[in-house]
Amino acid sequence: MDDQSRVRGEAGAQFAPKDGLGVGPLVPNRHGEPHANHDCGHFLLVVHGLIVAVFLCLSPVSRAQVAPPKAAASRPKDPPGVTRVYWDYFAKYDVAKKKSTPQLDGLLGKKVVLFGFIIPLDYDSKSIKEFLLVPFVPSCSHVPPPPENQIIYVKMSGGKGLEVTWHPVEVTGILSKAKRADAAFEIQASNAVTIKI
What we know:
The chain is of the alpha+beta class. 21% of the residues lie in helices and 26% in strands.
C-alpha cells in the first residue's frame, strides 16, 4: 500500500459518517477537506429524475379540466338552437350501470356545442374526420385514459375535416349515445372550430 492510499484510508475512516445516513465514507478532496464519496451519486441522480418524471405524469395539473376561455377573440358565438354542454354533465353518467341523467337524456338528439381537446383516431391524415374529444389536454402515455363518460366520439359530417391540433376545439353537432366501448356518447359534428388561446 503506498503512502497516498494509506492517507486516503485513514482520512476516510476519520470522516466516515457516524449515523450511517451518508452516501459513503467521506474522503479528503485535493485540498484536504472532507468530501463525500460519490460512487452512488449517478444512481441517485437517475432515481431522482425518475421520481420527478412520474410526479409530472401523475400531477393533477396535467389532467386538469380546462374551462372554456371566457373572452377569447377567436371563439365563435353559439348559433341559435344550439345548447352549450359542459363536461360535468357527462361526469354524472353512471359508467358501471350505464345509467344516464334526465339532463343528458333531454339533450339526446339535440344540437349541442362542447369545448374540449382532440385525440385523433387517424394520425396519418392531415384532415381528420373521426376523433375522440376529452376535457383535458392529452398527456403522458403513462397516464390512464379518462373514463368513458369523459370521452366523446366525434364524427364529422358532410366530408368536412379538422386539422390535427393540440389547441382546444369547439364541436357543434347532434348528441347521441355511442355504440363504442371507449366512449359513452358521440356527436355527429356539423362544425368544429380550433380555439387558439
